[in-house]
Specification:
By secondary structure, the chain is α+β, with helices and mostly antiparallel strands. It has two domains: 131 residues, Alpha-Beta Barrel (N-terminal domain of MutM-like DNA repair proteins); 124 residues, Orthogonal Bundle (Helicase, Ruva Protein, domain 3). It contains seven helices and ten strands. The strands form three sheets. The chain has a four-stranded antiparallel sheet with strand order 1-6-7-5, with helices on one face. It has a four-stranded antiparallel sheet with strand order 2-3-4-8, with helices on both faces. Helix 4 crosses helix 7 and helix 6 crosses helix 7. The two termini are 36 Å apart. It binds a DNA duplex through helix 6.
Length: 285
Amino acid sequence: MPELPEVEVICQGLQSHLLNQTISSVYCSGKDLRIPIDCVALQTELLNSAITSLRRRAKYLLLKTDNGAALIIHLGMTGNLGIFPAGTALKKHDHVCWTLGNNTELRYNDTRRFGSIRLLKPETSSSDEKAFFAAIGPEPLSRNCSTAYLMQRAVNRKQSVKSFLMDSHVLAGVGNIYANETLFKAGIHPEQPASSLSAKQWERVLTVLRKTLKHAIACGGSTISDFVNASGEGGYFQMNFKIYGKTGEPCETCGEIVQKKQVGGRASFYCRKCQPISTNTCDER
DNA sequence: CAAGTTACCTGACGGC
DNA sequence: TGCCGTCAGGTAACTT
């Protein structure tokens, strides 16, 4: 479910509920996520420490406590974090629950268990954090992501531009929905090789991507099936989808029927007229 | 080494 | 009603 905008919305929504709260107990369902959960370690490292910060990097949430420990949380496809009154009934697929000092609980719910919760111990959390995030590409909304950077990374890459945009080692936080939307608005076919885009096209991709991500964050993210923010409210950016999930419908721009095709193993939606497969070799480069 | 494929897991949906 | 196949927002290990 969650791509950069959804994780950002959750992060912002949780801030006021979590900051300065002391963790008084930790519950685990016993089922593992994508990586095993060490419940004993979660208890020993976090108990009676206070949450000092929460921020997003890529699709990860980084939560730090005053004893120097940290959690790196990923929501996978169906993960979510929410605040609930302490003691109320757990829901199906609630896998980790942190009781906080103000009589509330932070709960991690994840139907498919594709998410992950990594615990960084106080002694090594700083270097572990750096190492973990070093492998991930720059934030598309930050200044250190530029047209020049994307062009340079795309040199000699025969891979489709869509897979390239979704590669977390290249760019942080871009998933299937926003890759589809961005390429539609930029007028670029998802299967065009990354190395074949002109400077002008890369500029358009980055501009459109940033605009789309910001718009989605402002809308509270996209709700497909079950996404909700920390207060249990869905986002409404899905109302603004131009191409994602529109198979068989007329293109909003030109009326051509929207196509669906697997690209890099992921469902890809595009308009044949608005996103022509360009074999531009030298003219625009 | 780059790029494509598969596995991880549950649930919703459509066809029969 | 139910059984079966297909599909789903992500990531990383594996294969080619």
